[in-house]
Amino acid sequence: MHLPLNALRAFEASARHLNLTRAAEELHVTQTAVSQHIRKLEDRLGKPLFRRLPRGLALTDEGQALLPVVAEAFASVARALDTLGDTRPREVLTVGAVGTFAVGWLLPRLRDFQQACPFVDLRLLTHNNRVDMAGEGLDYAIRFGDGAWHGTQAERIMEAPLSAMCAPALAHGLRTAADLARQPLLRSYRADEWAAWFEAAGVPCPVVRGTVFDSSLTLAEAAAQGAGVALLPVRMFTRELRQGRLVQPFTQELHRGAYWLTRLQSRTLTDAMVAFRDWLIVHAHAGSPTTKNEQQQ
After folding, report:
1. Across the chain, what does the average pLDDT equal?
2. pLDDT-based confidence at 69, cuts 50/70/90?
3. Are 248 and 203 contacting, i.e. CB atoms less than 8 angstroms apart?
4. Into how many domains does the chain fold?
5. Angle at 163 between CA 284 and CA 224, to 5 degrees
6. Would you say residue 181 has pLDDT above 80?
């Protein structure tokens, strides 16, 4: 069935305002023209879309069913036109991100970035905090640490304090930090984290013999499956906490670093790099990011 575009636009505007006069003002036509378009559409469909009231309109069941379909169609057209109207040439942006940040924070917001910066063709690589920016051809690398990497400019994205996390079943027996001595304590490649956490909690650190993992993603999955207790950046595992796969039995946190957006000091900024950086900082709610240039390791 062929439906006239102007009639569909008149219907959509009238359905939003439930008033012919306001719809006509929005479309810059007369109220009579809007009314005629709607009548033609109703005649074509063979069903009324509105009930005419003394002071406006009310949608019929058929009108209520049609409105979201038409509204989404016009919204899709508008998004496509916005993309075509962007005169900037498409740019490839290659970003290396520590896997925990990529999965826990960036991927859930990736669609938003694509819509905000449609001219950027993002290439996303993951790493375990060890990266060769020049060798891998990276425009940016997102890392965890203190911001001091040789030959790079680093801008703080967000803090990432670590907290003890485990499966709900295992947490039932944890009332004080000292109770952790009876549980397997899973470890990252940063060997001193548990000792520092216990020191901050004011409790002697037990002998730590849990499995060592090279990624917080596998560390968290092991904890969720009941293998032990892990120190994890809470902000990267909010989904697992909401789902109840992980719990945080203690409020004690350990501040050992932050996530940073880094680039080689020799790398000239491109439009794509600026767009990604601005989007990232805004959405990370980082406030006034810290910049740190290091001259030597």
Report:
1. 89
2. very high
3. no
4. 3
5. 100
6. yes
Please give the pLDDT value at position 86. 61
Euclidean distance between CA atoms 236 and 81, whole angstroms = 35
Structure confidence at residue 286 (pLDDT) = 44
Question: What pLDDT is stored for residue 81 in this prediction?
Answer: 74
Tokens of 90: 């498409």
Rounded alpha-carbon distances, angstroms, from residue 226 to 71, 151, 159, 178, 247: 47, 41, 27, 19, 11
Residues 267 and 284 in one domain: yes
Question: Is residue 225 domain-shared with residue 275, that is, in the same domain?
Answer: no
Read off the pLDDT of each residue in 260-286 and give the average, rounded to a whole number.
Answer: 91
